[in-house]
Design brief:
Layout: E1 3-10, H1 14-22, E2 28-30, E3 42-48, E4 57-59, E5 63-67, H2 72-77, H3 86-92, H4 98-101, H5 106-112, H6 118-125, E6 128-132, E7 136-139, H7 140-143, E8 153-159, E9 164-172, E10 179-188, E11 191-197, E12 204-205, H8 207-211, H9 219-232, H10 243-272
Parallel strand pairs: 1-3, 2-3
Antiparallel strand pairs: 4-5, 5-8, 6-7, 6-8, 9-10, 10-11, 11-12
Helix pairs in contact: 3-6, 9-10
Bound molecules: flavin-adenine dinucleotide.
Residues 28-36, 38, 68, 72, 95-96, 104-105, 107-109, 111-112, 114, 116-119, 152-153, 178-179 line the site of flavin-adenine dinucleotide.
């Protein structure tokens, strides 16, 4: 458990929160505290954002905004996260249990950029922007590779593309454990996005493999893409699995994801133009 050595500040504005954060290099923002409580950090000032109304999920002109204090459970229960955004719900559904997900936040999960993160893997495949209080708007594909800096994740914005279909797949050795591999695929027309996390490194996009796929790939092309995916990204070993095992599973999960989203796309097409 962490120790607050000086102050607990319930911020009244984001600017106050940022000022408090910057006062000492060891000051921290509090999300759900579920990750922080695993460590033994001594934190001079802990800054609580819970009074700022940042726990909402709202529809905007182009998509959906999710405040940093929304919980992972909100990803499962919000009626706004429909269509391709349902992969957000699927990505968190195996994380520990409902009580845990009622507390862990979107802000803590995004800022943490954990290698094992299911949620980050799903977000990376979608058209997602991170809003930092100081650093401004950063596309998720860039944010994921940024070094940790002192800033506040205020919200994330998801742009909705009507024709986008997506699939989320993961493998765990046992329920509630960290994933051995996490994979998300999204497709809008002939544009694919393939994100693989828990390799055990942080989620990354397989840009070249995605670019090699067209609107209606054949089974052979999907097979080649599964191989190429494992060449393009790096895989490593930890207590959960070897790099080779992770590659093998990635190929299987990619094929499953592709089949699932191609059939969802067909279904969507039939619903839109019934003959
Ligand atoms: C036992 C356990 C098992 C888990 N299993 C999984 C799993 O299988 N899959 C998975 O994807 N995830 C898993 N997680 C991670 C979890 O889903 C959350 O991502 C994690 O707990 C962080 O969310 P939090 O709200 O608890 O953040 P906190 O613990 O509050 O914060 C984490 C870090 O983010 C910073 N922070 C928090 N909010 C903000 C903000 N708005 N702006 C800037 N910085 C901020 C904090 O200062 C801290 O450095 C697990 C975590 C635990 C503890």
């Amino acid at each position: 458990m962490f120790t607050i050595t000086q102050n607990y500040v319930k911020a009244e504005s984001l600017s106050q929160a940022y000022d408090e954060l910057m006062r000492n290099r060891n000051n921290r923002i509090l999300g759900g505290g579920m990750w922080m409580r695993q460590g033994r950090k001594r934190i001079p000032t802990l800054v609580d954002l819970s009074a700022l109304g940042l726990d909402t999920i709202t529809q905007t002109g182009q998509g959906i905004d999710i405040g940093c204090m929304a919980t992972l459970r909100d990803m499962e229960t919000s009626p706004l996260l429909t269509g391709s955004l349902q992969i957000l719900s699927k990505s968190v559904s195996d994380i520990v249990g409902v009580q845990f997900r009622n507390t862990a936040t979107v802000g803590g999960s995004v800022y943490g950029r954990f290698g094992f993160s299911d949620f980050l893997t799903a977000l990376l495949a979608l058209d997602c922007t991170v809003h930092l209080y100081h650093g401004g708007k950063v596309p998720m594909r860039d944010f994921v590779n940024l070094p940790y800096s002192k800033d506040i994740v205020e919200k994330i914005s998801l742009t909705i593309h009507d024709s986008c279909v997506a699939s989320y797949q993961s493998l765990r050795r046992s329920a509630t454990d960290f994933p051995v591999i996490a994979l998300a695929v999204a497709k809008t027309g002939d544009r694919w996005a393939i994100s693989v996390g828990a390799r055990p490194h942080r989620a990354a996009l397989a840009v070249q493999t995605a670019a090699s796929l067209g609107a209606v790939p054949s089974a052979l092309e999907l097979e080649a893409a599964a191989e190429s995916l494992c060449q393009e990204l790096t895989f490593g070993e930890n207590m959960r699995a070897s790099a080779d095992y992770r590659r093998d599973i990635t190929k299987v999960l990619f094929r499953r994801a592709a089949e699932e989203l191609l059939s969802a796309e067909q279904q969507l097409g039939m619903e839109r133009s019934p003959s």
